[in-house]
C-alpha cells in the first residue's frame, strides 16, 4: 500500500510498503529517503507516536493515510563527525562506504530499494562509491523539485479563487495530471502502443527479379524506384512523358511511368503499372491502385496479404527478414502517404478555356509543380474525347484522366472504376 509521510519542514515522501511492515523498517527506509537517522525519527499517526515494534496494519494505518515525521534535530543540519551514516545537505553521503555497508546488512531495505528504486539499489551493491554519490545527489535534486511542485500546487489550491493567473495555473495542473494519468493507464492497459510497429512487407518478383515490397494502402500509386526498375530491367519501358513531383510525407521526382509489367506474388503472375521515382527510401511500394485492381485484402489476423480476392495468400515478413535500412529507420518516408495525399493533377496549357493539353515534355515545368502531386503528360485527341465522355457522366476532368491512365485508355473499365465497380 502507499502512504504519505510529511516532515515538519513540509518535505513530502510517498512510500510503497506492505501493511505488515514494522514501523522500525519504515524508519529505516526514511533514513535513506529523507536522510534522517532512525534515532531522531518520531512517526506520528492521528497525533500519536507509532512504536517501532508495531506493524502499520496493527497501528491502524491504511492505504493512502498520512503520517507525520517529527525530527528531533533538523535533517539539513551539518552531520556530527561521528555519524557516518548521515547525508550532506546536497544529498550525498558523509561516508559512502559506511552507508553501503550499513544498507547491505539490511536485507529488508535492499529488497524495498529493488522494488522502488532499483538504480539506487544497484549502486549500493556496486563497488563504485562515486556512482552512489552521483545518484544520491541527483535523486535529492529530484525530490526537492517534486516537493517544490507540490508546495506550489497546495498554494494554488489555497489561492484567491478570483485570481485569473492562479486559475490558469490550476487549469494547467489539472491538464497535466490528466495527461499523466492517461499515460499511466496506457502503460497498464495498452503497453503495445509504445512498441515499435513493424511495417508490412511481402516477397514479390518484378520481371522475375525478387524484391521485398512495402504494402501500403495509404500510398495512392504503386511506386518503384529508379534503381530497382533498372535492376529489374524495366527502364527500357519508361514513358518519360509522365514526369512531375510526388509530395506527401516525403518528396521525390517522378521520372516517368511503366505502363504494364508482370509481378509474381505467391507463385501467381499479375499485371501491374508503376510510377517511377528518381529516389525513394523503399524500392517498391505496392499501393492502393494495384491493391484495388487485384482485389487484395490485408489480413492482420492471419498476418497475410490475400491477392485476387483470396486466391493467393502470402505472409508478411518478420522483422528479421526486412531490409537493413528499414530496421534502422523504421517507417519509410514516401510520397503519396497518409491523408495528405492528393491525386495527380493534369497540367494544362496556356489557354485553359480551350482545354489545350501541352505536348509531351521531358522535364517538369516550374509552374506545373505547385500541387501536392503533379504529373505532366501528353494526351491524344482520342483520349481527350474519352475524358469528355466521362465528364458527361458527372466526373471531374482530373479523376477521369487518372482513371483512363490507370486502364490504358479503356473508357469502360475507367467508368466502372469511377463508379466503384473495382
Secondary-structure map:
Layout: E1 2-7, E2 12-16, H1 23-34, E3 41-45, E4 48-49, E5 66-71, H2 96-104, H3 107-116, H4 118-125, H5 129-157, H6 164-189, E6 201-206, E7 209-215, E8 223-225, H7 226-231, E9 243-247, E10 251-265, E11 268-277, E12 284-286, H8 288-293, E13 297-299, E14 304-307, E15 312-315, H9 324-329, E16 345-346, E17 373-376, H10 381-392, H11 397-406, H12 411-418
Strand order of the largest sheet: 6-7-12-8-11-10
Find the CATH superfamily of the largest domain: Phosphatidylinositol 3-kinase Catalytic Subunit, Chain A, domain 1
Question: Biggest β-sheet, characterized?
Answer: 6 strands, mixed, barrel
| Cα-atom radius of gyration | 35 Å
Number of domains: 3
Structure class: alpha+beta
In the CATH scheme, the class of the largest domain would be Alpha Beta
Number of strands: 17
How much β-strand is present in the residues? 15-25%
Overall 3D form = elongated
CATH fold field value of the largest domain: Ubiquitin-like (UB roll)
Task: Name the helicity range.
Answer: 25-40%
Poorly predicted ranges: 74-82, 334-379
Order of helices and strands: EEHEEEHHHHHEEEHEEEEHEEEHEEHHH
CATH-level-2 architecture of the largest domain: Roll
Helix count equals: 12
Average pLDDT, rounded to a whole number, is 76
End-to-end separation: 60 Å
